[in-house]
Every structure is written in C-alpha cells, then in structure tokens.
Amino acid sequence: VFDNVTKSYHVSNVIKGISLRIKKGEFVFIVGDSGSGKSTLLRCATLLETMDGGDLIYLGDYAAKADEEGKAVYGDKDTLQAVKKHFGLVFQNYALYPHMTVKQNILFPLENLTGKDKLNKTQMLERAYETAKLVQIDELMERKPSELSGGQQQRVAIARALVKFPRILLLDEPLSNLDARLRLQTREEIKRIQKETGITTIF
Ligand code: ADP
Ligand code: MG
Questions:
Q1: Are residues 85 and 92 in contact, defined by beta-carbon separation less than 8 angstroms?
Q2: pLDDT tens digits along 102-136
C-alpha cells in the first residue's frame, strides 16, 4: 500500500500524493512519460530512496508511517530489513557479474542468505536450476554473461531476482535495452512467469 506518498528533489515535486493498493498476486503496470517519476516511485517502494511523506505498507507491516504533519517516518532497521527480504528487483541495466557464470550469478543471492533462510549447497543448486528452468535458461548455466544475447542476459537477471522466492517482484523498465522483437518476446515471458508463480508484480 502506498498512501499519499510524496517525494521531492530540491524544489521539484516528483510524486505529489500517490495512493495505491496492490493486492496479493496482482500484476500492476505503471506507465508514464520519461521523467514522470516511475523510477522514483519504485525506488521508494524498494527503500532505496526515502519518500518525504505518506505511508508505505507491506503485507500489513508499516515500512513507513506518516506522522501528524504527514512526514514519512521509517521503521527501525530490523523492520526494514524484514521488509526488504520480500523483494526481487530487476532494473533496466541488468548488471550481471561479468566474471561469473550464469549459474554463479543465480546462486549469488542464495549464498548471502543468513539465519533460518540459509540453504545448503544441494538446496541452492536445486533452486537455481528450478528458477533457470522457469525463465528457460537452464541450458546456459555454464556460460558467462558476455556469451549471451541481450534477451538471455535479461532472463538471467530475472532469475536472479526470483531465486529467493520473493513475495514481490519489482521491475523498472526491464525491457528497454532489448530490440523490438526481443522486447515483445521477453514481455510475454514475464507475463507467463508472473502467471506461473503468482508473484505480486509491479512493472
Ligand atoms: P521516470 O522513471 O518516470 O523516467 P524518474 O523517477 O527517474 O522518472 O525521474 C522523475 C524526476 O525526478 C525527473 O525530473 C528527474 O530528473 C528527477 N530526479 C530523479 N532522480 C533524481 C535525483 N537523485 N536528484 C534530483 N532529481 C532527480
Ligand atoms: Mg525510470
């Protein structure tokens, strides 16, 4: 839930009171002109950016809550850490690790899990292959990113975002680096993956 979210940079009000309630399993598209604030909203949603005002609620927990003057007050470190665990993020420039294979790129987020989320090597490999299969790159696991097409690289980026089984998938113009044909194809892929996983998605 975004409730009356505001965000300014210096004097420009980029987000002027957006309220949006996204239900579990929904696939929401946010469209707008370049510079209209789509990335800003998404960055606020991912807690990479702090909003000025409003509420931000995930699965019933407040990440930020407006005070009496409407100013967004963020939760403590543990609360935000718990919220952040729900996200899978995919950005326009997919930033794969160039020196790692596809498999290592996908395994990477799993290797950083701690505490009760920690997986053993076999479980990690199972997850990595399962996710790679979902985005149809399981036959490319030993390749380096430089040996893949743009569309394949983008799918690796999506696999990397999905491998932790996030509750919420956030995609910021994930197709803009692809040519027209691949863009169509990858868009269909993303729709299919969203349907198959039922993951709440903001695109
Ligand atoms: P979109 O993703 O819809 O193209 P953005 O959210 O990236 O738009 O940008 C919205 C507006 O905020 C633009 O006018 C942009 O110049 C401005 N902006 C974005 N990030 C910053 C920043 N870190 N500092 C100052 N202005 C910014
Ligand atoms: Mg943008």
A1: no
A2: 999 999 999 988 888 899 999 999 999 999 998 88
Q: Which letter does DSSP use for residue 48 in this model?
A: S
**What is the tens place of the pLDDT at every residue in 135-170?**
889 999 999 999 998 888 988 999 999 998 899 999
Residue 38 Cβ inside 6 Å of ligand 1? The answer reads yes
Query: Rounded to the nearest 10 degrees, what angle do helices 102-111 and 121-134 cross at?
Result: 120
**Per-residue exposure over 173-190, b if at least 16 CB sit within 10 Å of its own CB, e if not:** ebbeebeeebbeebeebb
Atom nearest to 40 CA in ligand 1: 6
Report how far apart, in Å, the C-alpha atoms of 196 and of each of 88, 157, 180 are. Answer: 16, 18, 24
SS3 of residue 107 by DSSP? helix
How far is ligand 1, taken at its centre, from the CA of residue 33, in Å?
Answer: 11
CB 130 within 8 A of CB 139: no
Whether residue 14 has its Cβ less than 6 Å from ligand 1:
yes
Q: What is the pTM of this model?
A: 0.88
* Ligand nearest to the Cα of 172, by number: 2
Per the listing, tokens 């349907």 go with 195
Q: Is 35 in the pocket of ligand 1 (CB under 6 A)?
A: yes
